[in-house]
Design goal:
Length: about 325
């Protein structure tokens, strides 16, 4: 990560003690919290940046870290031009780190507990309407008619993302045996290694079956293992390839907004709520730890309702 990303360029100059804390914290995140390698790397970079900043302020030992160090570090990041959302994420990393350090006896006090950061307003996500989603999926079905394995795969993965609302990493992690065809459900391993069962609909069932029976055998190789979705060389499908497939599928529809896989997840959740699903059920479907996260989708639905009212009501 470069200095422009908000992480200090001189973190390699950390003392042995500082580095030991960073690596012990990283092991905790991986082994006890079940965080992904990508997430652990992000935390490691944030905490290294913080400790390097504290060392420049004269903190020769990591146990000398205090609240002023955290505040001046965040101020430095802001002055460097980082977006508010990025600064807020760095602050969250610092709070998790100091809570761990205090709980394990490394810090006398949890100095990050009183660290406050302005709440970041998150814009409403771009969404497909139900009609647009149908057009995207119909277009993919037409392209897969000739039996091309990549076309069959891309149709199946977009159908499944929209039908189930799962994350792209969860989709790429699916194995063939994770399909429960008798119940039309998926076994999904989500964030933190948490397992959940997610239903999917009849169109997705058809698309996935055709990929598994007609497309997957054409790409299968010794590297395939149990992976449900494969790349062109036969290995497990990379999330970047899945993202490109979604972008390309949506881009073919002239009136649809540009969407990544997470946009399909947003769309699926919003369409479920607009169709009458209760918030708790959608929370379980998406694998959200807190219902507060799922409530974002109700804001999307309310915004659509407000716009429709303004356009149609004579006294709006």
């Amino acid at each position: 990560m470069s200095p422009s990303d908000g992480v200090d360029a001189d973190t390699n100059s950390l003392s042995v003690a500082h580095t030991a804390w960073v690596e012990e914290f990283a092991r905790y995140l991986s082994a006890e919290r079940g965080r992904s390698p990508h997430t652990v790397a992000a935390y490691r970079g944030d905490v290294s940046s913080l400790l390097a900043h504290a060392a420049r302020r004269g903190r020769e030992r990591p146990d000398q870290l205090d609240l002023d160090d955290l505040r001046s570090w965040l101020a430095r990041l802001r002055a460097g031009g980082l977006a508010s959302a990025t600064v807020a994420r760095r602050a969250s990393s610092a709070r998790v780190f100091t809570a761990w350090a205090h709980r394990t006896g490394r810090l006398a006090n949890d100095v990050g507990a009183r660290l406050s950061v302005p709440r970041v307003s998150r814009p409403l996500p771009s969404l497909l309407t139900p009609d647009q989603a149908g057009d995207v999926l119909d277009g993919l079905a037409a392209r897969a008619d000739d039996g091309d394995p990549v076309a069959l795969r891309d149709r199946a993965l977009v159908e499944l993302l929209y039908a189930s609302g799962i994350r792209v990493a969860e989709l790429c992690g699916l194995d063939v045996e994770d399909l429960d065809e008798s119940r039309r459900a998926l076994r999904v391993i989500g964030k933190g290694g948490k397992e959940r069962t997610v239903p999917y609909g009849a169109p997705a069932e058809t698309a996935v079956r055709e990929w598994r029976d007609r497309g997957r055998p054409q790409l299968r190789s010794d590297a395939s293992g149990p992976a449900l979705f494969l790349g062109v060389r036969g290995g497990r499908l990379d999330a970047r390839v899945a993202r490109r497939a979604v972008h390309a599928a949506v881009a073919r529809e002239p009136h649809a907004p540009d969407l990544a896989p997470h946009g399909l997840r947003h769309s699926a959740a919003t369409h479920l709520l607009e169709g009458g699903a209760d918030l708790r059920s959608v929370q379980e479907l998406l694998g959200h730890a807190s219902v507060a996260t799922t409530q974002r989708y109700t804001h999307v639905s309310i915004e659509r309702l407000r716009l429709a009212y303004q356009q149609a009501h004579p006294r709006a």
